[in-house]
């Protein structure tokens, strides 16, 4: 992994929780960290419904649906699988969230690889 | 058929607690709200009704993921309800409730209710401005803004629906219920106003695939553009997510600011919408960023330039 940025302690994201970070280093969108089955994953906070990718939370860190089973875009209620990022219900059915590469150090710190977005997306 | 506009929009939500928090922070007044949901009122009594999506009191859901369950329209009098029942009873089931209201489905399957309107008449000033060449609207020593100024939604303004067939939707509301097309965004759809309301629109359609059918957004009238920006700024500061705006639309001339919500659609503050009568001739423009807005801004944290040398400079 090349250049990275510190996001948080791995313990800061509990099982079944999601949190937003950034935007980092000039990126347009935030990074979502979400933990499911003990595994921590990173997704770009950009709903694929519109080409620019739009922010998905309804408020700070509000990325999950009521049942806490899916990442949710609170524009139109699209549901995304936490493990694959695939939209399973809503306007962008079949499309995917953009994965963000993260790493966890031996000390338990979470880092994100830079850049977190394609240049074309950060231009919008 | 003197239809005035939406009295209530009813939602079946998956997170009642989040929705209660959101609607209260938006500036609506909870009325008889419990952990099961309830009514959230604007200043004139129109507003939003929420219940959990599994609550049997709700009308049935749309066959999509959308949470909108019913649009409740206010009409002027009981005679208007009779006229709607007579018109629509010819080709669909119209259910008369004990309070005299009627329930039915539109031609896309959206649940509708019509009732003698519950809205209270408002008597409060619009935002006042001063400009050279025009009489001052604010008296000497009457200030325009202050930190704690009120900025609450005055009334439910309009609803925007994703529909798969614009012709079917337009014919139902215009030919059967007397709505009028005020303008058309080609590629999206028409703006509609009902007979007993002179607002540019209380209803707008956007053409989408069948699986998206539902509510795209709903909007509330504010007292003016300053109230809109003050309310939106307070909302962002509390951590809620801006989606689009603030800005000003071309068709309708209304200021706008859209936000994400836990109700599966956008919420809009709007202000200073055009009024129309039957002499108005509808305009048409292709849907796009240029046609959609005259100006668009994005909120940033407060900042101010100060005089003097930069911090740390020798001086």
Characteristics of this structure?
heterodimer; A: 124 residues; mainly beta; Rieske Iron-sulfur Protein; 3-stranded antiparallel β-sheet; 1 helix; globular; disordered C terminus; B: 315 residues; alpha+beta; 2,3-Dihydroxybiphenyl 1,2-Dioxygenase, domain 1
Question: How does this model look, in words?
Answer:
The complex is a heterodimer of chains A (124) and B (315). By secondary structure, chain A is mainly beta. Chain A has a single domain (4-122), classed as Rieske [2Fe-2S] iron-sulphur domain (Rieske Iron-sulfur Protein, 3-layer Sandwich), CATH 2.102.10.10. Chain A is 3% helix and 31% strand. Chain A contains one helix and nine strands, in the order βββββββββα. In chain A, the strands form three sheets. A three-stranded antiparallel β-sheet of chain A has the order 1-9-8, with no helix packed on it. In chain A, β6 and β7 form a beta hairpin. Chain A is globular, with a radius of gyration of 14 Å. Mean pLDDT of chain A is 92; it is low at 120-124. Chain B has one domain: Roll (2,3-Dihydroxybiphenyl 1,2-Dioxygenase, domain 1), CATH 3.10.180. A ten-stranded mixed β-sheet of chain B has the order 17-10-11-12-9-13-16-15-14-18. An eight-stranded mixed β-sheet of chain B has the order 2-3-4-1-5-8-7-6, with helices on one face. The model of chain B has no long low-confidence stretch (mean pLDDT 96). Helix content of chain B is 16%, strand content 35%. Chain B contains five helices and 18 strands. The radius of gyration of chain B is 21 Å and the shape is globular. The longest helix of chain B is centred in the last third of the chain and has 13 residues, at 225-237. In chain B, a hairpin with a 2-residue loop joins β2 (29-34) and β3. With 315 residues, chain B is an alpha+beta fold. The chains are: A mainly beta (124), B alpha+beta (315). Chain A binds chain B through residues 54-60, 62, 65-67, 73-79, 89-91, 93, and chain B through 13-16, 18, 22, 65-67, 208, 211-212, 214, 216, 238-241, 243, 260-262, 264-266.
């Amino acid at each position: 992994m090349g250049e990275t940025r510190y996001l948080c302690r791995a313990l800061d994201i509990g099982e079944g929780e999601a949190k937003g970070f950034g935007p980092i280093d000039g990126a347009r969108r935030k990074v979502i960290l979400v933990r499911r089955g003990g595994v921590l994953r990173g997704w770009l906070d950009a709903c694929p419904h519109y080409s620019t990718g739009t922010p998905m939370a309804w408020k700070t860190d509000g990325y999950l649906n009521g049942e806490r089973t899916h990442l949710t875009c609170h524009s139109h209620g699209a549901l995304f699988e936490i493990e694959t990022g695939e939209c399973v219900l809503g306007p962008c059915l079949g499309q995917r969230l953009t994965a963000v590469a993260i790493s966890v150090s031996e000390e338990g710190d979470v880092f994100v690889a830079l850049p977190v977005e394609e240049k074309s997306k950060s231009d919008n | 058929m003197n239809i005035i506009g939406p009295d209530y929009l009813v939602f079946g939500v998956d997170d009642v607690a989040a929705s209660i928090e959101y609607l209260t922070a938006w500036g609506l007044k909870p009325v008889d709200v419990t952990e099961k949901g309830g009514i959230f009122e604007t200043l004139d009594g129109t507003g939003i009704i929420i219940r959990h999506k599994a609550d049997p009191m709700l009308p049935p859901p749309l066959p999509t993921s959308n949470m909108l369950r019913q649009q409740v329209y206010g009409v002027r009098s009981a005679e208007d309800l009779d006229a709607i029942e007579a018109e629509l009873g010819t080709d669909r089931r119209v259910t008369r409730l004990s309070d005299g209201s009627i329930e039915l489905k539109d031609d896309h399957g959206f649940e509708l209710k019509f009732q003698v309107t519950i809205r209270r008449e408002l008597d409060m000033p619009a935002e006042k401005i001063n400009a050279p060449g025009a009489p001052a609207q604010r008296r000497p020593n009457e200030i325009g803004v202050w930190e704690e100024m009120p900025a609450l939604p005055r009334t439910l303004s309009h609803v925007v629906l994703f529909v798969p067939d614009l012709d079917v939707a337009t014919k139902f509301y215009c030919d059967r219920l007397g709505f009028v097309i005020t303008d058309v965004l080609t590629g999206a759809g028409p703006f509609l106003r009902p007979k007993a309301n002179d607002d540019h629109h209380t209803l707008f359609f956007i053409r989408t695939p069948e699986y998206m059918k539902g509510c795209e957004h709903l909007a509330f009238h504010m007292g003016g553009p300053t109230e809109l920006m003050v309310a939106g700024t307070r909302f962002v500061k509390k951590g809620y997510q801006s989606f689009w705006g603030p800005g000003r639309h071309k068709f309708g001339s209304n200021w706008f600011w859209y936000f994400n919500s836990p109700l599966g659609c956008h919420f809009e503050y709007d202000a200073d919408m055009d009024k129309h009568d039957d002499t108005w001739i509808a305009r048409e423009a292709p849907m796009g960023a240029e046609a959609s807005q005259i100006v668009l801004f994005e909120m940033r944290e407060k900042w101010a330039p100060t005089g003097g040398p930069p911090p740390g400079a020798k001086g």
